[in-house]
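Here is one such tokenized protein:
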Amino acid sequence: MRINLFWRKGLFVLAFLLSMNVLAKDDAPYLHTGLPVCFISVDIPTGGIPRYEYIPATICMVEETDTLLFPVNVSIAGRGNSTWGYPKKPYKMKFDQKVSLLDMPEGKNFVLLANYCDKSLMRTAIGLTVGRTIQQPWVPEDRFVELVVNGEHLGTYQLAESIKVGKNRVQLNDTGFMIEYDTHYYQQPWNFHTETYSYPMAFKHPEENMTEEVYDYACNYVNEFEEVLAAPDYLKTRRYADYIDMESFAKWYYQKNLLQMEECNRYYLKADTTQESRLCMGPLWDFEWCLGVGLYYGEVRPNPYHFLENKLYFGRIGEDPLFMEEVAKLHVRYRDQVRDDVLAMYDHLKEELALSQVLNFERWNILDKQVSIGALPLGTWEAEVECDRQFFLAHLDFLDTQFLPYLPTDITSPKEDTQAQDDIYNLLGQKVHQGHLTSGVYVIKGKKVIIR
């Protein structure tokens, strides 16, 4: 419920904020960064919020327009594996009833990402932008906020929808399932190791009300898929393709490699236990190690090394030319729009976070320090943002060289009877004036030509 401070319920809001000594600090800088402020109150010290156990809390949201989310009860806990070990902690929240936070779709589960290692503060937002541009079935909504717990300002946080199965999130039928490749699988009540590759899998849905039918079906289906994928003649028979949704796997692989993600969450889902549905991938999550950051400690930034990430099943699937052709077609379809949308998002976030980041890095003084996977520190937020941006642009050019050779001739070449000798076409078959050529791939005299 959203109300104004001066409406009839305003006294309860005033009492809540007074209890956190917030109104006494009405000139506090975090109230004036342009971001919504998320106030959370717990009955224990902020540092005592447990990682695995939810504890009761109260939440209130103040927006720039002075409207409020009326204080409501919520449960809060820590989240993350390695990220929980950082000084700036990430959290997850669970409401008793569905709520809409900052105009996001209604849900019960949300996360507060700390983005401690990401000195740009933007990688998750950029990664989600790419997912929306390439039209992934569902991409979590997110908003940046100032987080204040028990009156203590903790910095710039990213409020986002949790990855859950539900009406406004991942949609499955009654017998559907979602599993995750998870080295911490033992923390989940339902899990298994695959038979061929011995991958640890944890069920994310169903988490409750699991049935023997769904559990056995999921295990057997994944094991059968692995068996045909590992077969010596898998490229000849291509039986593995009968088990997966090729477009879903190609889009996930494409999104991951657009960002050069070295580590991420790998979710596999199937809508139901019928023969009509196939194994899909998504949503893509965990963007900490991307855009040239992660396992790189060189003296040069942006990271000059570009590569395709082919871990787990893609070590085999990525050897299939027909699969790579599907990825190449996605690149032709989305490349330029991805570029435009990502650059626009960088511009938007540089303005949106300009004041907030100053307070964040006063609270967490790390811009000149190497933190965990972070490479050579650049000293300023602006330099970190520009570094990621430059890596992204260089990586797009690199992907042209990796994906476009898989395109068949009939995809790239217009009909010969309509093409004059000196005509130049882009990969959508549109005629391009020679003076307007930018970096990309073109058809010139019936041949693919890469212009850098």
